[in-house]
Amino acid sequence: MKVLKTTKELTIFLSKESEDNVIAFVPTMGALHDGHISLIKNAKSSSDLVVCSIFVNPTQFNNSTDLEKYPRTIERDIEILEQENCDILYLPEVSDLYSENEKSKHFDFNGLDNFMEGAGRKGHFDGVATIVEKLFRIVNPDKAFFGEKDLQQLQIIRHITKQLNLEIEIIGVPTKREISGLAMSSRNKRLSETNLQKANLINETLHFIKENSSRYSPEELKQLSIHKFNNQSELKLEYLEIVSLENLHPITEFKERGNNAACIAASISGVRLIDNIIF
Ligand code: PAF
To answer: What's the pTM value of the predicted model, to 2 decimals?
Structure first.
């Protein structure tokens, strides 16, 4: 695997490779886990050359403590990428992608950011879109891979890719799960065995919503689900929304099959978890 640390090196390398090769791109912030490995495997199976980036993007963090605390495991990440036969790792410094004091660009997400993560983490998606646009323009891939676990991020990236007229196919990869069904996340490592079990309520509730969607309305299911969280004290519900997959706005009636999503954010012992189900 080639490790390239500057935009210049990457651009020179890709200018020779991009003509005859299908280039797949997997942007990450490192601390790679099985969810990322699944993105790399998907990218590998449908392209000639896989570029993975590891960059902890400062503009998408709401506070500096979160940014500092973000896990950095670069040596382990490189081992994982080598095992997965990733072709290129792009590992830039902040100064390579941002000029001094540069802030996020403001995007129009057409309301996709009105609820859920967008409501609770002001400016977060502007930061994500800013870095994704920069990376897309540098790597200029044919395809880019993102996890469905971050559903709102995925839909927002699809939206800006169209808005910016970038000819990049955005591919959403299904969430990797523990045997229990809990969505894989680097944050799961911070949970005790007991809390890992308790966190399963997230996944169980999402399935409950999907399985009962022909019996109850979205609002009834939302109330029944909130009740499940209120019946215990460890897992604190931040939001539970049943939304249209198209615009990510809460719905009062279910759409056709495949066009609905239930999304949850909850925290346990200070560890914030998110998950969703599309149905
Ligand atoms: O999902 C992530 O890891 C990040 O939000 C992304 C897409 C790499 C942008 O920094």
So the answer is: 0.96
Q: How far apart are CA 38 and CA 115, in angstroms?
A: 28
Q: Which residue's CA is minimally distant from atom 8 of ligand 1?
A: 28
Q: What is the per-residue pLDDT for 69?
A: 84
pLDDT tens sequence across 3-25: 999 999 999 999 999 888 999 99
Ligand 1 centre to CA of 219 (Å) is 31
Distance CA 9, CA 169 (A): 24
H/E stretch holding 90 reads strand 88-90
What's the average model confidence in pLDDT over 204-216? 98
At residue 89, the 3 state secondary structure works out as strand
- The domains found in the chain, sorted by start residue, are 2-173 (3.40.50.620), 186-278 (3.30.1300.10)
Atom of ligand 1 minimally distant from the CA of 147: 1
